[in-house]
Amino acid sequence: MPDHSPAQEMPAFSLEQHMMYENTISGRDSTELAYLQLRRAIVRCEIPSGVQLSQRELSQLTGVGRTPLREALRMLQREGLVEAEPNHRVRVADFRLTVPLLQTDELRRLEGFLTQMAGLPTPEEYERWEVPHRAFHLSLVAHAGTRIVTMVAQLSDHAERYRRFYSTEAPRAFERGMREHGAIVDACLARDPGLAAERLARHYSSVALGTLAVLAPEYDPVLVRTALHSVMQARTGGKNGAQGSE
């Protein structure tokens, strides 16, 4: 990946603390040190999304040579944290929200998947129901980037047996699921990503809690409730922050 002068000046940020921490760990080679330092700076938003990265400046900041730096950037690219553009410049990946980007035809397809699911209400039709159901959920992350779409598809595969059990064994699972899917569609039609995320989190928690209620009714699902509470807090905090800035 040849070096290019960035179209936008890379903002100043400090890696001194990261370097002091990482350099205390024995056995780190230059590539791993650069990777850990840059990854931490990106996830903490010390390097803002969308910024093009100058290999010359990064080499000076991390204290490693160009060769290990290029390999560290490739590692970050595989994680989806940076992107290599056609001209070989590297930039920090943008935040991507699917709901605001959904086009009219995509919203119609989402409603179509919901209609197909509604027409397959019995446990015996689960195999057919799962086809539009899977397409429905993948549509919700369609614009989130290849890494996120792939990850969601893989997690969906891993959750298949739990989802199947819940859908075919939990009382009133179909009716509850259709209400929740419909509420998600309404939030998408309203172009409200925060509400869509909240309703999606509620839907996932319903599946987890419903499955546990059947398989292990004595179990206290504190982690599920904590995860849902975190989503709710994030949405409430975002609203309060927006109101306070108006």
Describe the protein in words.
The chain is mainly alpha-helical and 246 residues long. It has two domains: 16-92, Orthogonal Bundle (Arc Repressor Mutant, subunit A), CATH 1.10.10.10; 99-231, Four Helix Bundle (Hemerythrin (Met), subunit A). The chain has helices at residues 16-22, 30-43, 55-62, 66-78, 104-118, 126-139, 146-158, 160-169, 173-189, 193-215, 222-245, and strands spanning 52-53, 82-84, 90-92. A three-stranded antiparallel β-sheet has the order 1-3-2. A hairpin with a 5-residue loop joins strand 2 and strand 3. Helix 5 (104-118) packs antiparallel against helix 6 and helix 8 (160-169) crosses helix 10. The model is unreliable at 1-9, 16-27 and 240-246 (pLDDT under 50).
Number of helices: 11
Spatial ordering of strands, largest sheet: 1-3-2
Q: Which CATH-level-2 architecture of the largest domain?
A: Up-down Bundle
Radius of gyration: 22 Å
CATH class of the largest domain: Mainly Alpha
DSSP strand tally: 3
Helix content: 55-70%
Poorly predicted ranges: 1-9, 16-27, 240-246
Q: Terminal Cα separation, in Å? A: 43 Å
Kindly identify the CATH topology of the largest domain: Four Helix Bundle (Hemerythrin (Met), subunit A)
* Strand residue percentage: under 5%
Number of domains: 2
N-to-C order of helices and strands: HHEHHEEHHHHHHH
Attribute tags:
single chain; 246 residues; mainly alpha; Arc Repressor Mutant, subunit A; 2 domains; three-stranded antiparallel β-sheet; 64% helix; 3% strand; disordered C terminus
In short:
By secondary structure, the chain is mainly alpha-helical. It has eleven helices and three strands.
